[in-house]
Amino acid sequence: MERIILHCDLNNFYASAECVRNPALKGKPLAVGGNEKDRHGIVLAKSNEAKKFGVKTGDKLSEAYEKCKELIILNPDFDLYLSFSKQVRNIYAQYTDMIEPFGIDEAWLDVTGSVRIFGSGEQIANEIRERVKREIGLTISVGVSFCKPFAKLGSDMKKPDAVTVISKENFREKIWNLPIDCLLFAGRSTVKTLNKYGIYTIGEFAGVSPEFAKKILGKNGYSLWTSANGTDSSPVAFYGEKPPIKSVGRGITCIDDLKDNEEVLRVIKELSFIVSENLISESLEANSLNLTVKTDDLEITSYSANFIFPTDNETEICENAFELFKKNFKWKKNIRSVTVRAFNLTGYKIPRQMRLSYNAERREKLNFEEKAYIGIKEKYGKNAVFSAERLKGTKMPSSKPEYSVLPTAFN
To answer: How far apart are CA 189 and CA 191, in angstroms?
Structure first.
């Protein structure tokens, strides 16, 4: 039996939730933004009315004000948004137990086994859409398809409050002429690489050989190629099921620009500890590391490298991240934000080949120190012990850094 996958996407979620809480905001240009003092002053979500003025997600608040002088900007209330998200998922759960969240406002649903009770995939999508609007006051766009990537594409094609069906019979006509960056997980670097080979649309990429896709994009090339051709078979997880973790990362936008290596090192050190702490809690070690920096003109550059030996240790993560930075970054601009991400993860119990050049004694000492460090913080609070480097100031905001644990990509 052909799978029936829905992708449900809450429209303008943060802004819409604020309008449900305060109906007086409906029909007005509204944006939910970050904290300007901590330089998280960007638009996180906007209403349709704000969108008509050209306000976009990711705009600086100052830019948004320039586009719309009447713009109402609210600080985000994540407790409110989480509450609404749970209410919506409770509705989803009445149609299937296969619900895989993709952020707070999106989710895939596998309703293959539900059609005999509730009707076709399109009928189920419309019923869910109407119930969410009637019972909660929010609108959703739903994509209906036979695989996850196409269902996601469908929910993006018509907004707000709409259902789009992409079938095996019409997907070539509906999506192959779309730009390649519309495809899930086709990021900026991937698109840039494909453009070098004259590949600009999903259909053009679908037409290359899988061997070529893997050659130019690496191991993720084949996954992306299967998505473009509609042969992706990745399952929708059961609700509450924890997917395998693909990477652990921390990023921070600093309260003032970083202007030299020493300031960058202090931030990397803080981020490395948080990444290390989470790796330890998940019983994972990283084989690879990624460092991303955003300059004051919002240009983003990313560097990656492999560890000599898998690690979850703060010192090793920090040392390698800082070496990546010194080796690659040229100080032509100041730095606005930094992200440290550990990936290519493995469990503790996997056998590994030791190298003669590797200092196992140093590793043991570092691990002992770090576990003691974490233990003190758990017992006496997060500020009970910290690096002396922090006394010099880190230019990090008082709010928590952005945190991401990414699930395994589609197979």
So the answer is: 6
